[in-house]
Design a protein that fits this description.
By secondary structure, this protein is α+β, with helices and mostly antiparallel strands. The protein has 3 domains: about 100 residues, Rossmann fold, CATH 3.40.50.20; about 55 residues, ATP-grasp fold, A domain (Dna Ligase, domain 1, 2-Layer Sandwich), CATH 3.30.1490; about 120 residues, D-amino Acid Aminotransferase, Chain A, domain 1. Helix content is about 35%, strand content about 25%. It is built from 12 helices and 15 strands. A 6-stranded antiparallel beta sheet has the order 14-13-10-11-12-15. β11 and β12 form a beta hairpin. The protein is globular.
């Protein structure tokens, strides 16, 4: 089951490809608030409508559906549903369904940009200086302007502003909590991570984000960067019970030093590039679910290029 499937057709196809390689007869279910407007739902075998992830009925309906249709595992795809599904993992387990997400502690940390910065500092991983908007506005600390203001619980590049001075921070208002970060300049990277059911990091696949559109990589290339792979190992040691797919983003400055600025506790939008390079997370999840011998490894191919283009689904 792909939850909040939306436009994640590439992820759906990766699961189909992996099942085919294993000779597994896989049925893919997908759910969304409006499945008739979701390309991934339309390409799935079965699609259902569900309430928003913030609704009390969301988990109730999904648990009932998973039990009725013997869903093996649920793959969350958007940040707003992660904590709800993580907290309900035991309820799904009672009907035989595995939720592919880490512990609530991981999800809460990754969803909160201030907590992420504090976690990275404690783990000894370089990250941009970060503070709440109020701390920047009313504190006496000096900052190197301009800075980057982000919603504390935002995602997909929503609500991000460059702020030139304290008056610009004040104009952010009280609509939602903001953090302000030191501006990073340089080459941007995503690192896709796979953790097995024991929480062991099995693969870390960096790719450079050569061109980004609407927060997702449009042009990218895999690169076996030692510093970023080192970040992945440090992160793995610090995380509380990771499971399945995660990713993080980092920027490398002109002097070659990297700084990690975001963690996502789910499949990243650029996962199809890692998959094509040989890091087939979807296959490894199916193997785990069926208790097959695991082929999870870190031997993916370097310098694989992904050039995305728009496609369409017709009804």
């Amino acid at each position: 089951m792909l939850s909040s499937a939306g436009r994640r057709v590439g992820l759906l196809r990766a699961f189909r490809s992996s099942a085919s390689m294993l000779g597994v007869d896989l049925e893919i279910f997908a759910c969304d608030v409006s499945p008739e407007w979701s390309p991934a739902c339309l390409e799935s075998d079965y699609a259902i409508a569900v309430p928003p992830a913030t609704s009390p009925e969301f988990i109730e309906q999904l648990v009932e559906y998973c039990g009725l249709h013997q869903i093996a595992f649920i793959v969350p795809t958007i940040d707003t549903e992660l904590i709800t599904l993580s907290l309900a993992r035991e309820r799904f387990a009672q009907v035989g369904t595995t939720v592919v997400v880490g512990s609530p502690l991981i999800v809460e940390m990754a969803r909160d940009k201030l907590m992420t910065a504090q976690f990275l500092a404690a783990a000894g991983i370089p990250s941009p200086r970060t503070a709440t908007a109020e701390e920047v506005l009313y504190g006496n600390d000096s900052w190197a302007w301009p800075l980057l203001a982000k919603p504390r619980h935002g995602s997909s590049s929503r609500g991000i502003h460059v702020v030139e001075d304290r008056s610009a921070v004040a104009r952010l208002g009280n609509r939602e909590p903001y953090v302000v970060q030191e501006m990073l300049y340089g080459r941007e990277f995503t690192v896709n991570l796979f953790f097995d059911r024991t929480g062991t990091l099995k693969s870390a696949v960096p790719h450079e984000r050569l061109k980004v559109r609407a927060g997702e990589v449009e042009k990218g290339v895999t690169t076996r960067d030692p510093e970023l792979c080192g970040f992945a190992r440090k992160l793995a040691r610090a995380l509380d019970r990771p499971f399945g797919a995660m990713c993080f983003q980092a920027i490398k400055s002109k002097d070659g030093k990297a700084s990690l600025f975001e963690i996502n506790a789910r499949f990243g939008g650029g996962y199809p590039l890692a998959h094509r390079a040989g890091a087939t997370f979807t296959r490894w999840l199916i193997e785990q679910q069926l208790d097959l011998a695991s082929t999870a490894n870190d031997g993916w191919e370097d310098s694989v290029v992904m050039l995305r283009y728009d496609d369409a689904v017709f009804v």
